[in-house]
Amino acid sequence: MTMTTPTTAPAAAPAQAAPGRPFFAETRAQLAGLGLPDADPAGTESSGKTFDDGCHFRVEVPTVNSVQAAETLLSQSRRRGFTINRITETRGMYRHTAREIGEYVALGREYGAEILMSVGPRASYDTGGSVQTPEGVRIGYRLRGQEQMVRAVEDVKRGLELGVRGFVIYDEGLLWVLNRLRTAGELPPDIHLKVSAHCGHGNAASAQMLEMLGADSFNPVRDLTLPMIAALRQAVSIPLDCHVDNPRMSGGFVRTYEAPEFVRVAAPIYLKTGNSALEGHGVSPTLNQLDDILRQVEIVTEFLDRHHPEARQSPSGLHLTPVGP
Question: pLDDT tens digit string along 235-266?
């Protein structure tokens, strides 16, 4: 009996990879078809984008959790000759009296600074125990249960009545709800919804999703490399809020020499700086810590002037100047 060797169909030729990217060509092409970068770029080209005023960067000081701290930072920065464009409160609006919130708003008006306040209800203030476990970090500051969603919207409405127009959002569902209410005319059209780094997003697909959900700016996780940040800029048009330095609780890094590069590849960008003076989040800075924050902001602006003099910082008073209640 004659033995024959079975034949098989020839294997399909593998998809051709993009130049310099030898692996996973089909998936890269599919991501590109979705309007996403097919990789973190090997070379970091300049952004070419700006804020509406034609400027490339703004300076944000986060964790400004008392009116006294806000007044010190804004008045001393003016005296020392540099600009803080945005003050961000992170303890939560419902931890402040109406009088205090009104004073934040008045300071923003006086100094032409954006005042962003954070939504108060969050997992770490709730009765649920999961957030207190080692795995609870995955929950972040997200909302637990629909009643907390109701309260979060109420927190935003209270802030609006007191003149706040910028809000830090820690829950993607809340972002979606607030944007839908804004689109429907139930909330003012000029509110600014900023997504916090505590949501834990750090890739271009997530950034694009948040933009689609209504984010007006997006704070990625704090330890992204320059190519990773450049990929975010390729995916979205909203401003990025990037940490130049960080509290010990979140890593404690200081990336001052990268600040000019951040602006170059990711404009329009808010440079978040000064937090390295603090131990963690949700605290009220001491007088000594406020001086350290001001010093760090001054150093960052010096490095921008020295190493990237073409980059322009927005002057104060142009965007999100708080209005009266």
Answer: 999 999 999 998 887 778 999 999 999 999 99
